[in-house]
Design brief:
This protein has 16 helices and eleven strands. It has helices at 5-11, 31-38, 59-66, 88-93, 105-113, 119-143, 149-154, 156-166, 173-183, 190-213, 219-229, 235-266, 268-276, 281-292, 324-327, 363-380, and strands at residues 16-18, 41-46, 52-56, 71-72, 147-148, 299-303, 307-309, 312-314, 319-322, 385-386, 408-410. A hairpin with a 2-residue loop joins strand 7 (307-309) and strand 8 (312-314). Helix 10 crosses helix 12. The longest helix has 32 residues, at 235-266.
């Protein structure tokens, strides 16, 4: 028998205050295991505004929610679980990104972009990705240690890759990296968040206008060309798409590069095993993605019809947070889930890239970048080690995407 929201509200403990914080960078927030076991679909109150939402923590339930057409990604719908302070008047002006669209708009936009991120297309990009990685490792080795791996390698590699793919001048990277970092920060005021969005969109508006008149060999130009014959977007839609691609294309991968290197350094026996057998690298990447599942804020959705998840009925209009990180530590899918195991057979079942129609479109590209960076460091910098205790590192507990601010290393 399922329980309605009203019934659950009358019998359960007070709602969980979300988001929850990690106490160890290599583990999920400690509360997640208890929620999976005792209350896999549980009430929460968002710390940012006190509004209610449902937390979904088991792997099967997260997949169910993210694959259900009765669940919407539209952040303008009442009940959507926002994790930023967004005034109503500002929300009304927001142009939806592909990330927040439902079918058929989402389908049309995604179809335009899929050719840029197929496995074949990413294979063609791998030599250039490797060249970028090698150039940055060359510079790092020439400078000598210690260096901050975030600024020397983890951030510039995906930033340069996505710039070249989109046709964004890399000389502007310091500006858009600052704006994109601001967009990931839980703690910004509405004014600060709005200012960052406006600054980035003003920059991209000028860039898109330039490409409308002088197209190049890049993703934005190709999108514009397709859009001339299959009209799915206006100018502002293209600017918004470019923002999503630019921010999403480097912010997440940069954090995963740094965290993955840190995890391997903290597990030297696995690092040695990976160095001895490079064929393990693709599976190691999947396992690192599973362990960290860096979208700590979960995947936000809102029900547009009543749905049953586990033994709970989520009513139309109620917000849902599908917790990818909790799902990726589900003991029923990943035995001994808190242990890093680069040989784990189930590693690729992780939900770090999401699931369903909104699964990360850039997953193939991210995997290629991670493989290139980890493999190159293992091969070319065998003496790599931390230059500061883990306890002194600053982790991104204030961000929508988990990571580390600096990673001092030497060799």
């Amino acid at each position: 028998m399922t329980q309605s929201a009203d019934a659950v509200a009358g019998t359960e403990a007070p709602p969980v205050q979300f988001p929850l914080r990690r106490t160890c960078p290599f583990a999920e927030p400690p509360e997640y295991a208890g929620l999976r076991a005792d209350a896999p679909v549980s009430r929460a109150a968002l710390k940012v505004n006190g509004k209610p939402a449902w937390l979904v923590t088991r792997h099967e339930h997260v997949r169910q929610v993210l694959g259900d057409s009765r669940v919407s990604s539209n952040l303008k719908l009442p009940g959507y679980p926002h994790q930023f302070h967004i005034p109503e008047e500002l929300l009304a002006q927001v142009r939806l990104m592909m990330l927040n669209m439902d079918a058929p708009e989402h389908t049309a936009h995604r179809r335009m972009l899929i050719p840029e991120f197929t496995a074949r297309r990413v294979r063609e990009l791998r030599p250039r990705i490797q060249q970028i990685v090698d150039e940055h490792v060359d510079a790092m080795l020439a400078a000598g240690g210690p260096v901050d791996l975030v600024t020397a390698l983890a951030l510039p590699v995906p930033s340069l890759v996505i710039c070249e793919l989109l046709g964004v001048p890399y000389e502007d990277h310091a500006r858009f990296e600052e704006w994109s970092a601001a967009l990931m920060n839980h703690d910004l005021s509405p004014q600060e968040y709005g200012a960052a969005v406006q600054a980035l969109d003003t920059y991209l508006d000028q860039l898109v206008t330039l490409k409308e008149n002088e197209p190049g060999d890049d993703l934005i130009s190709r999108f514009l060309e397709k859009n001339r014959t299959e009209r799915v977007a206006d100018h502002t839609d293209v600017v918004t798409m470019a923002r999503l691609m630019l921010v999403g294309g480097h912010e997440t991968t940069a954090n995963m590069i740094a965290l993955g290197v840190l995890a391997l350094l903290e597990h030297p026996e696995q690092m040695a095993e990976l160095r001895a057998d490079p064929a393990l690298l693709p599976n190691a990447v999947e396992e690192l993605l599973r362990v960290f599942s860096i979208s700590d804020s979960g995947t936000a959705r809102v029900a547009v019809a009543d749905i049953e998840v586990g033994d709970v009925t989520i009513r139309a209009g109620e917000g849902i947070l599908a917790l990818n990180n909790a799902a990726d530590h589900d003991e029923s899918v990943f035995p001994d889930p808190d242990t890093l195991d680069i040989r784990r057979k189930e590693a690729r079942s992780h939900l770090a890239f999401g699931y369903g129609v909104h699964q990360c479109i850039g997953a193939n590209l991210a995997r290629a970048e991670l493989e290139a960076v980890y493999g190159t460091l293992l091969r070319r910098v065998p003496g790599l080690r931390l230059a500061a205790p883990v306890e002194e590192l600053r982790f991104k507990d204030d961000a929508m995407v988990y990571g580390v601010y600096e990673l001092p290393v030497t060799w």
